[in-house]
């Protein structure tokens, strides 16, 4: 953890606890599949291949899905300059800098560690934010890399992905009798479906709880690194307002990657759904930045910078 990025022991504890609980769930899930499917080789090969694909290629998958591409310094000199300055201040390895040709204003970080990280911003974000606001957003994303919570979220999400795929696999695989449905086959099918659904639900809740806290931790770290929490608050307010005006149908593709975004691709502030959200409510994030601004003695109030 770089000295200049705010260390968050509570985030570290939460990441460790989440991985421990998901690990227990993972062992139980694999054991149940081996017993039910009676083929440990099939289970091991399937899960091993999926894990390698998600962990080692998560950055490429995310960039491809979000139409992002690495950009040279000559193409976006100001963007590269901000990333260079923040990495120098934080003593952080320089990530790959990418841009996504999307009008939706947003940013995300991905990768399996500080030495293999990608920070991507959309053209819509670059067009709308002032330099100080962009610096706050990039500091937020780089703090995810420094805290290593990007890798943790990637690993943690893996179990839910497998559980969801097993449910689909169950419907089409010949392992359940190739169309012949006797009583034993139906019982095995129901058991696999039930175990997979339970694992998916539990992993979903654990990951969402961690994801909401990691966003608050990234906001804190970015505000302390830049010394301008009001600029980050202004960026949050601006980006959330712009996304709220985008039709929901245009946000659906992006919503699959909400856990990685600076601000979720949601058309409105959720009600009861906030308990299942990847991000804390905007008001909570702004309130925290307001407290930091007061502590730092910053003149500008959060949300009014820029």
TrEMBL record:
Pfam families: Peptidase_M48
Domain Peptidase M48: 77-290
Residues that coordinate or bind Zn(2+): 140, 144, 215
Cofactor: Zn(2+)
Membrane topology, record value: Multi-pass membrane protein
NCBIfam families tied to this protein: PRK02391.1
Family: Belongs to the peptidase M48B family.
Protein name: Protease HtpX homolog
Taxonomy of the source species: Bacteria, Bacillati, Actinomycetota, Actinomycetes, Kitasatosporales
């Amino acid at each position: 953890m770089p000295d200049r990025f705010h260390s968050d022991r509570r985030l570290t504890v939460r990441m460790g606890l989440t991985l421990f609980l998901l690990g227990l769930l993972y062992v139980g899930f694999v054991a149940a599949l081996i017993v039910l499917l009676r083929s440990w080789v099939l289970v091991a090969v399937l899960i091993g291949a999926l894990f390698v694909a998600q962990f080692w290629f998560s950055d490429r998958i995310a960039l491809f899905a979000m139409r992002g591409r690495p950009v040279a310094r000559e193409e976006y000199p100001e963007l590269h300059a901000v990333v260079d300055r923040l990495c120098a201040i934080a003593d952080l390895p320089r990530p790959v800098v990418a841009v996504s040709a999307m009008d939706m204003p947003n940013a995300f970080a991905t990768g399996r560690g500080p030495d293999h990280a990608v920070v991507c911003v959309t053209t819509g974000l670059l067009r709308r934010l002032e330099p100080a606001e962009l610096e706050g957003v990039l500091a937020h994303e780089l703090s995810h890399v420094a805290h290593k919570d990007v890798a943790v979220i990637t690993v943690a999400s893996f179990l839910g992905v497998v559980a969801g795929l097993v449910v689909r696999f169950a419907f089409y695989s010949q392992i359940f009798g190739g169309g012949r449905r006797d009583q034993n086959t139906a019982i095995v099918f129901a058991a696999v479906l039930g175990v997979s659904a339970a694992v998916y639900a539990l992993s979903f809740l654990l990951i969402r709880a961690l994801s909401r806290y990691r966003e608050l931790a990234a906001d804190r770290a970015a505000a302390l690194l830049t010394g301008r929490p009001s600029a980050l608050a202004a960026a949050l307010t601006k980006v959330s307002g712009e996304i709220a005006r985008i039709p929901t149908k245009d946000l659906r593709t992006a919503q699959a990657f909400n856990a990685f975004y600076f601000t979720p691709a949601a058309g409105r502030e959720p009600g009861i759904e906030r308990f299942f959200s990847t991000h804390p409510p905007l008001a909570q994030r702004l309130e925290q930045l307001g407290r930091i601004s007061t502590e730092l003695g910053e003149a500008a109030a959060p949300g009014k910078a820029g």
